[in-house]
Amino acid sequence: MVHLSRAADGTGHFVLEIWLPSDVWSELPENLKNGKEVRCVIALISLGINAQQSVAYAVGATELQEIINCESISVLRRYAKAYRQLRSNPPFPSSANSNVDRGIDDRPRGSGSDDSSCGNDAGGGANGRENECLLQSLRRIEELLASVEHAVVQNVLHNDKNLDVIILSERLVRLLRGGRITSCKSGKDRTSMAVTAEHARILHEAHGLPEAEAAELMDEMRASGVRWLNMRKNMPSGHYAFNWFQQRLLPSGYRAPKGTWGGGTQT
Predict the structure, then answer these.
(1) pLDDT single digits (tens) 62-88
(2) CA triplet 227, 249, 153: central angle to 5 degrees?
(3) What is the pLDDT of residues 98-111, one digit of tens each?
């Protein structure tokens, strides 16, 4: 449920109400249960991947995208700093805090990303393992933040569709336990490509699905999954709105599978 309120100076802000399962609700601090609002920190990462963006890169008309991304990196860095401080001095009981890191790292299994591989010092006990997991998580956040910054800079310098800007941002926000959406202008065609690509990456990197099978599943989700159903509600033709030229200018991992595109010129 979303409410829009307006302050005395004319500025407005949204209030989003989220319903939680009873077991999650029981873990919240009392002030949140009593209605205290939680301020959201918003960061917008922008990366054009369509034909129009190719033209923009060619003529050097990408200044707005560069400004947006550079400002958002600053926001993410400030948030990451606050997150590290919170995790290092948690206001929650240790029993609740010990579960916060579970499942947030999407590196491949066996690479030290899950809790079972943290803290190999048997003499440290459970607390030692939890502390080591926390340190690994915080180090991973700092590494990813630096990688996102590097990807944004490289995108500015080389004027190309550097997908690392999207991919690394997705990973960083998951590690920071943030909420995130991916959407293009219409929330339909390019959004479908981006969302299914992310799902496939998570299945491969975090759940051990072979890369070839992840690619096949990605095409299947685009051809028969919920993103296809969403597109059908907007396109009576039943095809993604990419023509041949637009398909060729999309990054290879963001192209609609054969037989699913050709629904008209995308705006």
Answers:
(1) 889 999 999 999 999 999 999 999 888
(2) 95
(3) 444 444 444 444 44
Residue 158: partners with Cβ closer than 8 Å, 6 or more residues away? none
CB 137 within 8 A of CB 175: yes
Contact assessment for residue 115 and residue 101, using Cβ atoms and an 8 Å cutoff = yes
- Asked if residue 263 has pLDDT above 70, the reply is no
Q: How many CB atoms lie within 10 A of CB 144?
A: 21
Query: Are the C-beta atoms of 194 and 254 separated by less than 8 Å?
Result: yes
Q: Distances in Å between the alpha carbon of 152 and those of 54, 57, 149, 200?
A: 17, 14, 5, 23
CA angle 201, 203, 207 (to 5 degrees): 130
The pTM is what?
0.75
Residues with Cβ < 8 Å from 42, sequence gap 6 or more? 75
Residue extents of the structural domains in the chain: 2-179, 181-267
Query: How far, in whole angstroms, is CA 155 from its chain's centroid?
Result: 18
Query: Coil, helix or strand for 222?
Result: helix
Q: Within 10 A of 254 (CB to CB), how many other CB atoms are there?
A: 20
The b-or-e profile of 91-117 (16+ CB within 10 A means b, else e) is eeeeeeebebbeebbbeeeeeebbbee
Calpha distance 232→227 (Å, rounded) = 9
Distance CA 113, CA 136 (A): 8
